[in-house]
Automatic annotation (TrEMBL):
Family: Belongs to the ROK (NagC/XylR) family.
Pfam family, one: ROK
PANTHER family: GLUCOKINASE, ROK (REPRESSOR, ORF, KINASE) FAMILY
Protein origin, superkingdom: Bacteria
Protein name: ROK family transcriptional regulator
InterPro entries xref list: ATPase_NBD (IPR043129), ROK (IPR000600), WH-like_DNA-bd_sf (IPR036388), WH_DNA-bd_sf (IPR036390)
């Protein structure tokens, strides 16, 4: 790699991270000569990767100029697949969300149907929002099941018939002609929660929906996926009770089978439909608001089971922040109090003395936020910057 390419990468990385927003700052931060910085910034401006704008007024001389990633340098396309629907988003390379929508195709219809509908809607959004001239630089997809991160596919997902080993990454890469990352949906949720200003890593995110999974963010802000991508697949740990309850994985006694949102709704007789939620979520909320003893008992029981597993994870990973998400987190008071009680009872003071236990913000979409963040990080990683510099100029 020649010196000019190295300089381009360092300059682009400094601007993308927000470390430097002017030519003078870049020179100071990178120790590159001002003349080199000027030449390479001009090159990036001509390629349409950077933009430079005047801000405010200057007492003397030229007005100050600020460098940023050009809005037309490229587009990020992400999809968060859930049991009943998929949420899709397009964003620019500065992580600004340009458009979002919902694709109402249930995961049980199979990968070809879901990914076909997702591809169509993402392409429509790109056209509707004038992004045809801004190539897709990265695609990120979250799946509600175990994911082989390296091979970009689901591995024996209990609630995703037909998805086992389906080449999700290759399927989408062929259609968007861009790098594709496939990850577990809870990992993306964890990344999204870690983006919040009021959240400190290490972070443990637990999603309680049709299944139960965990995402782990290290102190350095990276996802801990384990050797094969199976880290955080906690739904199939054994529950402390109900050892004879059959799980969708074929085993009995899994915590997912007795404490997931779907399990709670099923036991209360609330209709769930394809999503594991639907009208059932509304009926559960109403029952809890009215003080229904059966509903209160059942959700407290689920919170206790989840708390037992979480207490073990708190000891193993010693997170600073624990976030509960998914449909069950809508029942914030009952869920939080139950999980907190078990965690503080089971875990030792050293592991909990600075632990914050909370839920996702109402109306937030941390999975999509995390997917966009991951796509942007990959785009401006060393390999991503190389691809960006090798791509055809956007003028």
């Amino acid at each position: 790699m020649n010196s000019a390419t190295v300089a381009l990468r360092r300059i682009l990385a400094a601007v993308a991270s927000g470390e430097a927003t002017s030519r003078a700052e870049i020179a100071r931060r990178t120790s590159l000569a001002r003349s080199t910085v000027g030449q390479q910034v001009d090159h990036l401006l001509r390629r349409g990767i950077l933009s430079e704008t005047e801000v405010g007024a200057s007492v003397r001389g030229r007005p100050p100029r600020v460098l940023s990633i050009s809005p037309l340098a490229g587009t990020l396309a992400v999809a968060d697949v859930d049991v009943s629907e998929t949420r899709v988003v397009i964003a620019d390379l500065s992580r600004r969300i340009l458009a979002r929508d919902v694709v109402p195709v249930p995961v049980e219809d199979g990968p070809a149907a879901v990914l076909g509908a997702v591809t169509t809607r993402l392409r429509e959004l790109l056209g509707e929002h004038g992004r045809d001239g801004a190539p897709v630089r990265e695609v990120v997809v979250g799946l509600p099941g175990p994911v082989d991160f390296q091979h970009r596919c689901a591995v024996r997902p209990p609630i995703m018939p037909g998805w086992d080993a389906y080449p999700v990454g290759a399927h989408l890469q062929e259609r968007f002609h861009a790098p594709v990352v496939v990850d577990n949906d809870v990992n993306l949720m964890a990344l999204g929660e870690a983006e919040r200003d009021d959240v400190d890593p290490p972070l443990l995110a637990v999603k309680i929906g049709a299944g139960i999974g965990a995402g782990i963010i290290t102190a350095e802000g990276r996802v801990h996926r384990g050797a094969d991508g199976a880290a955080g697949d906690i739904g199939h740990l054994r529950a402390s009770s109900h050892s004879d309850t059959l799980c969708s994985c074929g085993k009995t006694g899994c915590v997912e089978a007795v404490a997931s949102h779907s399990a709670v709704l099923r036991d209360l007789g609330f209709r769930t439909g394809n999503s594991g939620a639907g009208d059932g979520s509304r009926l559960l909320a109403e029952a809890l608001a009215n003080g229904d003893p059966k509903a209160l008992y059942r959700i407290r029981q689920a919170a206790t089971e989840i708390g037992e597993v979480v207490a073990m994870l708190v000891h193993m990973y010693n997170p600073r922040t624990l976030v509960l998400g998914g449909p069950m987190s809508e029942q914030r008071d009952e869920l939080l109090s139950g999980v907190r009680a078990v965690v503080y009872q089971r875990a030792l003071p050293l592991a909990t003395r600075r632990l914050t236990i909370t839920t996702t913000e109402p109306g937030s979409e941390p999975g999509l936020v995390g997917a966009v963040a991951l796509a942007a990080r990959d785009t401006f990683s060393p390999d991503g910057i190389t691809r960006l510099l090798q791509a055809r100029p956007q003028v």
